[in-house]
Specification:
Keywords: Signal. Pfam families: Fasciclin. One of its GO terms (cellular component) is extracellular space. InterPro entries: Adhesion/Biosynth-related, FAS1_dom_sf, FAS1_domain. It comes from Octopus sinensis (East Asian common octopus). By secondary structure, this protein is of the alpha+beta class. It folds into 2 domains: 129 residues, FAS1 domain (Roll), CATH 2.30.180; 140 residues, FAS1 domain (Roll), CATH 2.30.180. The protein has 13 helices and 14 strands. The chain has a 7-stranded mixed sheet with strand order 2-1-7-6-5-4-3. Strands 9-8-14-13-12-11-10 form a 7-stranded mixed sheet. Strand 12 and strand 13 form a beta hairpin.
């Protein structure tokens, strides 16, 4: 039989839970004003406040202020787009930091993939939880209808798989064509866990700079196209920060025993000493794309020129 103190304790537990702040109120307590504004602009404030349980990945105000001018206004100008954007920051169910023990892909409420993993920002540091390219700066902020993970960078909604990103970009038509000719498009379209790829994608201008007779030979032979394309693919995800802080001089590729030479100087990354990354960290559902300004030629194709 319960004594009076036990009875009071069990009565107060549900009462305390029911009176705890909801996710919207907790965002306000954390002074995350811009994310609140975006949620309200998407007409999702009542949903985030009243439904759940759910996990909210909330960029800090500073993270939003670090974006290019017009970033927030562009989002708010399109109701469907901002709703899609906000739902990329929401996950059904509670995701706590202790739930992530290794790299994990979790589907957001808009259907796209969020990547959770632990990694050190600098060599020798204790690994911290990351979501896509963002560091979680405050973990496991509990509300009565979910949990908030506060991050130091915005989460840009993936435009699809790596293959879809290559096909849709009007400045990547040549590499998209080579992907198709090489029959590697299916690999870059897979979203199965553990099959993430990083593609260093030369722009059309990069292909225009190379010997056009060599390019024509590659396009006309699928085995040569596969050799070239495989040399631009790293098995796994590499962000620009990882490349800048890497202690290795080489990046492994999908060509065995043929790696990309990596060098950094003054914060600038170069691949094979010539290629620069012009557009880094294009997040995809199954990997990452970095647009580069030179074509990388694997050793087996150098005789063509």
């Amino acid at each position: 039989m319960l004594n009076i103190w036990q009875f009071c304790f069990f009565c107060l537990v549900p009462l305390a839970a029911s009176t705890a702040p909801n996710l919207m109120a907790m965002l306000s307590q954390q002074n995350v004003t811009i994310m609140i504004d975006l949620i309200e602009a998407a007409d999702l404030a009542d949903y985030v406040a009243m439904q759940g349980p759910m996990t909210l990945i909330a960029p800090t105000d500073e993270a939003f202020r670090n974006q290019p001018a017009g970033y927030i206004d562009d989002l708010k100008a399109d109701k469907a787009r901002i709703k899609h954007y906000v739902r990329y920051h929401l996950i059904h169910g509670d995701i706590f930091s202790w739930d992530i023990s290794r790299s994990t892909n979790i589907r957001a409420q808009n259907g796209h993939i969020l990547r959770f993993y632990y990694r050190s920002k600098h060599f020798g540091e204790v690994p911290s939880l990351r979501v896509n390219t963002a560091n979680v700066v405050k973990h496991d902020i509990q509300a009565n209808n979910g949990v908030i993970q506060l991050v130091d960078d915005v989460l840009n909604v993936p435009e699809g798989t790596v293959e879809e990103v290559l096909v849709r970009d009007s400045n990547l038509t040549t590499i998209a064509n080579i992907t198709f000719i090489s029959h590697l498009n299916s690999l870059l379209n897979k979203t199965r866990a553990g099959r993430r790829q990083t593609v260093f994608a030369p722009s059309d201008d990069a292909f225009a700079r190379m010997d056009q007779s060599v390019l024509q030979k590659i396009i006309q032979h699928s085995n040569l196209a596969r050799e070239l394309m495989s040399f631009h693919i790293h098995p796994g995800t590499l962000t620009i920060d990882q490349l800048k802080s890497s202690h290795s001089s080489f990046i492994s590729t999908n060509l065995f025993f043929d790696d990309i030479h990596l060098s950094t100087s003054g914060g600038e990354v170069r691949l094979n000493r010539l290629a620069k990354i012009t557009h880094p960290n294009i997040e995809c559902d199954n990997g990452m794309v970095h647009i580069i300004d030179r074509v990388l030629i694997p050793s087996k194709l150098r005789h063509l020129g």
